[in-house]
Amino acid sequence: VDSEAAGEARHLLCQMLERRLAGNVVKAHKAASAGTNIPPVEWDDAKLKAIPVRKGFPHRLHSKATPEASQRFRAEHAIQIEGLEEVPGPVCTFEEVDFPKEVQSVLTERYDAPSPIQSQAWPLLLHGHDVIGLSETGSGKTLAFLLPGIVHLRAQPRTKTKEGPVVLVL
Length: 170
Prior knowledge:
The protein is an all-alpha fold. It folds into two domains: about 1-35; about 60-155, P-loop containing nucleotide triphosphate hydrolases (Rossmann fold). It contains six helices and no strands. This is DEAD/DEAH-box helicase domain-containing protein. One of its GO terms (molecular function) is nucleic acid binding. InterPro entries: DEAD/DEAH_box_helicase_dom, P-loop_NTPase. Pfam families: DEAD. It comes from Eutreptiella gymnastica.
């Protein structure tokens, strides 16, 4: 290979990469700034009550845990729940939760069972409760909140473009 030709090829490749990266940066900037033109909304009780929001989906749960087994599970995994008189039992298998079929197949292919935070967060969230979950990195928090979020999203009326978030996971 001619060293001059190789140098020219390298130069052309670098130029192509720079143009592609610059284009991606512009696209990313446009996507990131898309939400900056959303006008602020003044929320009052009347507006909030006018929006039909379905939050509870207990029919998607088939927990087999007895109250005693639920207490044991929470004690074993240091799960503390505050502010509720009736706490739904944890789910210990994926079959105890009715997620969309596509999601179920991925879960059963990749994992043996729900993690402790998933086992308790899913029933709470699918019953319509707000949840703050504290757990170690890698414990399954993202799926603990995201999967009920998908169920929630699919049950809501379709939103208009730039109408705002329907699910918030921090």
